[in-house]
Amino acid sequence: MARIPRHEMPRQKPEDRKHNFSEVALGYTEEMAIAEAQRCLGCKKPACVEGCPVGIDIPGFIMKIKERDQAGAIRILRDKNSLPAVCGRVCPQEEQCEKLCILGKKGEPVAIGRLERFAADMERAARPVADMPRHTVSGRKIAVVGSGPSGLTVAGDLAKLGYSVTVFEALHKPGGVLVYGIPEFRLPKAIVQEEVDYITKLGVEIRTNVVIGRTHTVQELLDDGFSAVYIASGAGLPKFKGIPGEQLNGVLSANEFLTRSNLMKAYDFPRSHTPIRVGRRVAVIGAGNVAMDSARTALRLGMAAYGDDVEVSIVYRRSRGEMPARAEEIENAEEEGVVLRLLTDPIELRGTDGWVREMECLQMELGEPDESGRRRPVPVEGSNYSIPADTVIVAIATAANPLIRATTPDLESNKWGYIIADEQTGRTTKEGVWAGGDIVTGAATVILAMGAGRKAAMDIHAALSGNSAG
Amino acid sequence: MNKILHKTTVADATSLFVVDAPEIARKAQPGQFVILRVAEEGERFPLTIADFDRDAGTLTIVSLAIGVSTMLLDSLQEGDNITDLVGPLGTPTHLEKLGEVVCVGGGVGIAAIHPVARGFKQAGNRVTSIIGAKSRSKLLWEDRMAAVSDELIVTTDDGSVGRQGFVTQRLQELIDAGRRIDLVFSVGPTIMMKMVAGVTRPHGIKTIVSLNPVMMDGTGMCGGCRVEVGGEQKFACVDGPDFDAHQVDFDLLLSRLTAYKQEEAHAVECHCHRRQQGK
Question: Phi first, then psi: what are they for B235, rounded to 5°?
Answer without folding.
Answer: -95, 120
